[in-house]
Amino acid sequence: MSKFRNLGIKMVGLAVLLFVSFSQVQAQELGLVNKESSLKVYGTSSLHDWHIDAENQTGKLKFEDKASCTIAGLNISVVSESLKSGKSAMDKNTYKALNTSKYKSITFKLTEVKNVTDKGSGVFEVKAQGDLSIAGVTKNLPMTLKVTVTDSKVTLDGEKAFKMTDFKIDPPTALFGTITTGNDVTVKFSSVFK
């Protein structure tokens, strides 16, 4: 009787170990690597086109199953005052428009994955919805992501165009209003997770 009992205990232990191991292989959370990632905002003005770079961003990407690109969660946060144009006057106007003294971060949170298309060789097209929050205003927007999965990292590439006024941001002006910024902006990103 004790032989069967010991065997049963060993089988239960093995089953638990296999289940835990399988769960760890399937569910996986990766962190955004700031040094390897880029996020740029492009726009226009009455003087010239412009862009600003995000120098400080963080995030988490969680998979139910990495191999099939089954995403369970995605959060990205950009420190508002890490947006840099290389021109201090423009940066100052940007921070004023974003009200960075009150709203320290710009965030994106995935709310729904609508469709995943396997393009082969670890590349997927993901159509999703997410909450983009800028200067205290949150909008749920559609987003198409190119997801590249390798053993060592996952890269999300994409772009999204919107109007500043969608987020109740007045396009910045300079020189007493003689230079005006266009309302339309495009965010282009390549986010690396490991």
TrEMBL record:
Residues 29-194 form the Lipid/polyisoprenoid-binding YceI-like domain. It comes from the Bacteria. SMART domains: YceI. Residues 1-27 form the signal peptide. Keywords: Signal. InterPro entries: Lipid/polyisoprenoid-bd_YceI, TTHA0802/YceI-like_sf. Pfam families: YceI. This is YceI family protein. It comes from Aestuariibaculum sediminum.
